[in-house]
Amino acid sequence: MPTIVIVSPKGGAGKTTSALVLATQLALKAKVTIIDADPNHPVDTWMTGGNVPENLTVISDADENSIADRIDEAANLSPFVIVDLEGTASKMVLLAVSRADFVVIPTQGSELDAKQASVALEVIKQHEKMMRRVSPEFSLPHAVLLTRTSPSIRSRTLTYIRKNMMDSGIPVFDCELHERDAFKAMFSFRCALQDLPEEGVSGVKKAIANANAFASEVIQLLRNAEIK
Ligand SMILES: Nc1ncnc2c1ncn2[C@@H]1O[C@H](COP(=O)(O)OP(=O)(O)OP(=O)(O)O)[C@@H](O)[C@H]1O
Ligand SMILES: [Mg+2]
For the chain, does the N or the C end have fewer beta carbons within 10 angstroms? Predict the structure, then answer.
């Protein structure tokens, strides 16, 4: 059962937003567990709103000593496990990556942010290196997700960053998580995108379409990597 770990050492890269968008989207059709492994517990706070989709479970008691066990337990119970981490290169991050089937690296579209993504990519490379001692073919599927991008303007910087990454062999999601009020409003109203009030929050439908494209691409990438 796939465990998807969201990693970026950069604070505010969009990890928690991506985790929650993906989790609530997948929860429309399957059971999903989010492991809220950020000591600030943003997903746990979101959950206290009480509007948690039926299929979604939030686990927020994971620490360095228990994260690997928590992930394994959750993977036995839910078809999808999503791990949200804090924005540092901590031991928790290494442990979570060691349990991942797929890693999403959210990155805002600037050169400085792209540099931070390379720290996350290095963690993946190191893990692959270690695993290849026992399994020479081992690879950990992953992709960079460009976040908070404009839905209407294609900036040159963004085009350049995407091209640079792809030229360096770094997988990048075709879809981007656009800058939308609705993605912020999920946290204010403490509910899934689908449950946001349409009056007062702009672009809910477009955000749902964006979330759907993101979740579909994750499923496709898991299929391509033959992860079931
Ligand atoms: N696609 C988006 N559209 C609008 N706002 C966004 C989007 N993605 C993130 N944000 C906003 O940017 C801020 C940082 O996002 P988020 O908390 O998801 O990042 P993070 O990587 O989890 O941060 P941290 O490292 O502190 O855990 C939040 O205020 C969030 O609402
Ligand atoms: Mg976060």
Answer: C
Does residue 116 have its Cβ closer than 6 Å to ligand 1? no
Q: Which amino acid is at 102?
A: F
Distance from residue 134's CA to the centre of ligand 2 (Å) = 33
Give me the helices (H) in 62-110, please. 67-77, 91-98
pTM: 0.97
In short, whether 183's Cβ falls inside 6 Å of ligand 1 is yes
From first to last of its 228 residues, what are the pLDDT tens digits of the chain? 799 999 999 999 999 999 999 999 999 999 999 999 999 999 999 999 888 999 999 999 999 999 999 999 999 999 999 999 998 878 999 999 999 999 999 999 888 898 889 999 999 999 999 999 999 999 999 999 999 999 998 889 999 999 999 999 999 999 999 999 999 999 999 999 999 997 889 999 999 999 999 999 999 999 998 877
- Which residues face 56 on adjacent strands? 32
Domains of the chain: 3-224 (3.40.50.300)
Give the number of the ligand closest to the Cα of residue 18.
1
3-class DSSP string for 30-64: CCEEEEECCCCCHHHHHHCCCECCCCEEEECCCCC
